[in-house]
């Protein structure tokens, strides 16, 4: 070992080697010995002290015999054992820094423990370790070189979601056939693999997941299911497939909105048209504000094509929400001038008052919607009856 003097073997160390395993045992050798690990290369040892010796902090494997492999992830216990013959402890609760045989050494380990486990190891990687044992008198000895290697990284839910995110069908099939990962396990955002595939429009992945038993009606943290996400994103093939496998138009998110509300927000007319043909209720009301999909269009996007499609399918242009507002009022407040024109053309009543007795013209003036004010005033003049002339 470069830069280190090798001490003479002592009788207590010989006894110690015959008796102890690296995981430690509960017997007391009577010597009050101290041990620590030392890397094979690049170590910087310090002079041993009377009771403790410092060494480069290296991970300690669970057993010295060759071929024994450490776990890929574990933790270092902080409770001090009572003089076990082979003991190990992290200073100040620090996390150990493993070192590969091909890389630089890690940190320091010092103290007592019954076992030492290593976190953050790379899969399929060779690691090398040595143990430095120091007696109370300052004598020290190094163990023979131990080479250990980690196994393949186990398949986890992260691999499942990664396969879906990159639209990798082959990897997804291999993971599901392995049987170690549940198909409905959510990611860190609360989305199942089916939700992600439906939102991205990966129809083949959706079919694979459904055939492997995923629940099409599961919801994320905001209450949205896969059908709502597909409707909002405009993936008609996914919408049709989910409907054939049990997805419901009646499902609601935490705000009380249905798939048609989200399809109206997304503005995909082909999806909305098919939903209506499939029996989706066109004037369904959310449980929060009492808004229909037409009112959502008036508030959010102002999309004329979506509004016209809903109205032609039977949506009520004069329906009121919980506060007495109509789609026309909502469109005026959000300054959707073209939508206001469409609603008036489709029969919206501009004389309706809300619960505070205010009409659309007054609302437009209060919120300084000058273009909408001009439109409403012009429409009002056209609706005035002409005076008859008496000869």
Give helix % range.
25-40%
- Mean pLDDT, all residues: 76
Q: What is the molecular shape?
A: elongated
Q: Please give the domain count.
A: 3
Whole-angstrom Rg: 36 Å
Low-confidence stretches: 1-9, 20-107
**Helix/strand-derived class?**
mainly alpha
How big a fraction of the residues is strand? 5-15%
Task: Name the helix and strand elements from N-terminus to C-terminus, one letter apiece.
Answer: HEEEEHHHHHHHHHHHHHH
Instruction: List how many beta strands DSSP finds.
Output: 4
Sheet with most strands: 4 strands, antiparallel
Q: What structural keywords apply?
A:
Serine Threonine Protein Phosphatase 5, Tetratricopeptide repeat; 391 residues; mainly alpha; 3 domains
């Amino acid at each position: 070992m470069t830069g280190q003097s090798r001490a003479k073997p002592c009788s207590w160390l010989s006894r110690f080697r015959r008796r102890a395993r690296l995981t430690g045992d509960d017997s007391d050798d009577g010597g009050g010995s101290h041990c620590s690990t030392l890397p094979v290369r690049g170590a910087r040892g310090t002079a041993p002290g009377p009771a403790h010796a410092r060494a480069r902090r290296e991970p300690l494997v669970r057993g010295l015999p060759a071929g024994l492999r450490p776990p890929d992830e574990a933790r270092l216990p902080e409770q001090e054992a009572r003089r076990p013959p082979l003991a190990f402890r992290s200073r100040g609760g620090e996390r150990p820094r493993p070192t590969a045989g091909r890389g630089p050494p890690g940190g320091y380990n010092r103290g007592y423990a019954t076992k030492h486990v290593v976190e953050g190891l790379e899969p399929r990687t060779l690691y090398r370790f040595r143990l430095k044992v120091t007696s109370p008198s300052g004598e020290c000895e190094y163990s023979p070189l131990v080479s250990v290697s980690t196994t393949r990284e186990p398949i986890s839910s992260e691999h499942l979601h990664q396969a879906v995110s990159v639209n990798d069908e082959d990897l997804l099939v291999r993971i599901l056939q392995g049987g170690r990962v549940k198909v409905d396990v959510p990611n860190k955002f609360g989305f199942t693999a089916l939700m992600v595939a439906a939102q991205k429009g990966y129809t083949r992945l959706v079919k694979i997941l459904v055939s492997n038993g995923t629940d099409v009606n599961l919801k994320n943290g905001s209450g949205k299911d896969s059908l709502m996400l597909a409707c909002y994103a405009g993936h008609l093939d996914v919408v049709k497939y989910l409907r054939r496998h049990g997805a419901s138009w009646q499902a609601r998110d935490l705000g009380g909105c249905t798939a048609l509300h989200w399809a109206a927000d997304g503005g995909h007319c082909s999806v909305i048209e098919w939903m209506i043909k499939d029996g989706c209720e066109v004037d369904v009301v959310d449980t929060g504000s009492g808004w229909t999909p037409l009112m959502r269009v008036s508030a959010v996007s102002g999309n004329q094509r979506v509004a016209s499609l809903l109205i032609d399918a039977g949506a009520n242009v004069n329906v009121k929400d919980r506060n007495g507002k109509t789609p026309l009022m909502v469109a005026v407040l959000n300054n959707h001038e073209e939508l206001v024109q469409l609603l008036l053309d489709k029969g919206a009543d501009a004389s309706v008052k809300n619960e505070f007795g205010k009409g659309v013209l007054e609302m437009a003036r209060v919120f300084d919607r000058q273009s909408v004010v001009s439109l409403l005033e012009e429409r009002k003049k056209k609706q005035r009856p002409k005076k008859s002339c008496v000869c």
